[in-house]
Write a structure and sequence with these properties.
Length: about 450
């Protein structure tokens, strides 16, 4: 909860035995978490089972927002000075049950103030990636030296970014770009609108969000028509109203619900592929394994490449030889996090995946590795029609790469399987977006 918005650490008695409690650690935090935030299979499952064995729990992505800060993860350390205690927002955590028998576990959000902007000097992009320490490739826990925060000058949202184990800098929060934000047309980001904006159309009528993802027809979006622009819907968070929704009321803690009214800041906004690619991802962009050159990411950043592991345009099959110079972004990140032996054992007809059997040298399965700090991917679900689905169960993230006229590649992150960029779905689905530094 946000009761008291503590500016000093809570007492152990403030979190009952058997619970994980999510507490803000600053007086200016907005939003709230579900009551006490205790989870096993769902947030309503009540008290965590306490026994003699360790208990595995999936942490809940945050509904807290602190204006002007990026979210880095959860920590048992109120001051967040001990990096070894920082966990990803949706990380799987093993908790000794005998510890929970006597007291709960209190987690605080770790906030990072921005050190610059995504757009960099003169709108040329951020150049600070090399100054960050790459996260370890052996799966051991990274430190805050791998991370910073940047401001998106289009709407002043702040996001944490991290140099991950692949050596590249990624946005490690889901994109929350809101309605009709201005995007530069002076670089590869080339939206259809000649005035430099992309119409991420949201119609608020009586406090509700109009449905722009209802179409399930593969004939949608034949070009730069109004129908294309209208078929996008964002998470019902309207982050331009300071942690409020369209009715100007507080964010509703609606974790893992299948309704459009459930709001959850940590899940970000949802975009169909047309919007994620800033209007470039129309039906005629349909060459398998080719990537669009424009998207919603800030100047100097882009959507991660998806598709088969070979280089751009090569559809001959998945490359598992270890030549990472030909690997696509999502695929390569999975390869680095999990290692070649585990990955090769899961190749399946070109649609490479990891199940929960192979683990990396740190003992993490792929789904744990992708959600581990500082990767920080979350089970944000997807949006279709008038509902959000499977929040808290799995997540889908758009790539820049087409599969054909009707579908594009994405990262699928599930509890029992990870498909690192070679899964494909219809372009009209509302998926999450992460950006990678060029």
């Amino acid at each position: 909860s946000t009761a008291g918005k503590p500016v000093t650490p809570l007492k152990a008695s403030d979190c009952p035995a058997g619970y994980v409690c999510y507490a803000p650690n600053a007086s200016d935090i907005e939003g709230s978490m579900s009551s006490l935030g205790s989870i096993t299979s769902s947030p309503n499952a009540g008290k965590i089972s306490v026994g003699t064995d360790a208990t595995e729990i999936d942490l809940i992505a945050p509904n807290y927002k602190r204006e002007g800060y990026g979210f880095a993860g959860w920590s048992t350390d109120f001051t967040a000075t001990n990096a070894s205690t920082i966990y990803g927002p949706n990380e799987t955590l093993t908790v000794p049950s005998n510890t929970l028998a006597t007291k709960g576990m209190i987690l605080y959000p770790v906030w990072i103030a921005p050190t610059g902007t995504f757009q960099g000097t003169n709108n040329q992009g951020w150049t600070g990636c090399s100054s960050l320490t790459a996260a370890p490739s052996d799966g051991t826990r990274a430190t805050l030296a791998s991370m910073t925060a940047l401001t998106d000058t289009r709407d002043n949202n702040v996001y944490t970014v991290a140099r991950l184990a692949d050596g590249k800098c990624w946005m490690v929060e889901n994109l929350r770009l809101d309605n009709e934000a201005t995007i530069s047309t002076s670089n590869t980001h080339n939206p259809l609108n000649t005035n430099g904006t992309v119409n991420l159309k949201i119609d608020y009528a009586n406090g509700t969000t109009a449905n722009h993802l209802a179409s399930t027809s593969d004939s949608w979006c034949t070009g730069g028509s109004a129908a294309c622009l209208d078929q996008t819907v964002l998470n019902t968070n309207n982050t331009n109203i300071g942690g409020k929704n369209a009715s100007n009321t507080d964010l509703i803690p609606g974790y893992n619900t299948n309704t459009a009214t459930a709001q959850w800041h940590g899940y970000g906004n949802y975009y169909n592929w047309y919007s994620a690619t800033a209007g470039n991802g129309i039906r005629s962009f349909n060459t398998n394994n080719n990537s669009v050159s424009g998207d919603l990411c800030p100047t100097g950043w882009r959507l991660p490449q998806g598709g088969l592991a070979y280089a751009e345009g090569d559809t001959s099959g998945v490359n598992v030889t270890g030549d990472t110079s030909t690997y696509r972004d999502f695929y390569n990140l999975g390869y680095v996090l999990m290692g070649s032996v585990a990955y090769e054992s899961q190749v399946n007809d070109g649609n490479s995946y990891y199940d929960n059997t192979p683990t990396n040298t740190a003992g993490d399965t792929a789904t744990k590795a992708f959600r581990k700090f500082p990767n920080n991917f979350v089970y944000s679900g997807f949006f279709l029609g008038s509902s959000a689905y499977y929040r808290g169960s799995y997540g889908d993230y758009w790539s820049s790469s087409a599969r054909g006229s009707n579908s594009a590649y994405n990262l699928y992150l599930g509890s029992s399987r990870v498909i690192p960029g070679t899964s494909d779905n219809s372009k009209y689905f509302g998926f999450s977006v992460r950006c990678i530094s060029q």
